[in-house]
Design a protein that fits this description.
This protein is an alpha/beta fold and 353 residues long. Helix content is 25%, strand content 26%. It comes from Marinomonas piezotolerans. Pfam families: Polysacc_deac_1.
Amino acid sequence: MSLKKIALVGAAVLSTSVVMAQDYLPILQYHHVSASTPRSTSLSPEEFRGHMEYLAEAGFQVLDLSQALKDIQEGVELPEKAVAITFDDAYRNIYQNGFPIMKEHGFPFTVFINTQPIVQKNRNFLTWDQMKEMEQSGGVFANHTFSHPYMLRLEEGESHEQWLDRMSKELSDVEVALEKNLGHSPKMLAYPYGESNTEIRALIKERGMIAFGQQSGVVSKDSNFADLPRFPAAGNYAKLSTLKTKLNAKPMPLADVETGGDFATDLPVQLQMTFKEGKYRLKDLACYVSGQGKAALNWVDSHTVEASADKAFGVGRGRINCTMPDMSGRHYYWFSNVWIRPGADQNYVSQKN
């Protein structure tokens, strides 16, 4: 598999005469707000209230996601302690249990909706009337595809061209529904299961959209706006102590990244990072491989490091997360990358190329 270089947009350095209150944005990702849904994608209403109360008491500025991203791209400063709140899937418990809490605090939020269950009038999912009500108090609704598919898997007998046409329709159907029922779309997408490849990301860019994966990290002007990071804040990540660390995270100061591509094989993955010029605590950099512990670090030169897994990932998604304290010790730089290890019977597009 040939190495893929991720283009890090916006390499220009701002003049030192311009002081940015904050030029980056941590984004929280939720799904269910319920004590009776699968724990892996849920947190209880009480836990969610605790998160929102902490944001308010600690002075975090909760921003409208779409506007904040436009500001970052245009070099417009964000307020200090800026953060955004998002939800994936159109679960009704967001309206029942999460919305009243956010409304109390006046926090804007974004819900990425898959519209098939809404069309089917599934009682566990939002209605358009509920979404219109939520819009009146800071809610924004964006694209999570029509049927929530694994976007990189071919259907039986499907050609590559047919697959890409089907994925294009998955996006278009939601955009049409948003315009028809709400009158507008923010042109943002959350990839189902966080999965995308170069073709899907190219499709996003052609449509003038912004999209999110499921890798953790902080958005900055250097980010890939067709595959932005967010911090999961439910399930194993619902503890307030770990959330505080993420809320104070900064983007890793990288000039270049090489990942080897979107897919993992039967060999261990490797991540090569080249740091921008600057004063950093590089000796305190630590990288962790999902399910394996610390990654081995090999410094190629004074600014370039290779982080390597010890063994191959199993079938599914695996990642390497890297953190490094800043010079003050009050914040952590953060970067994460996700790979997909396809199963032999899963019919991923990588297996047909």
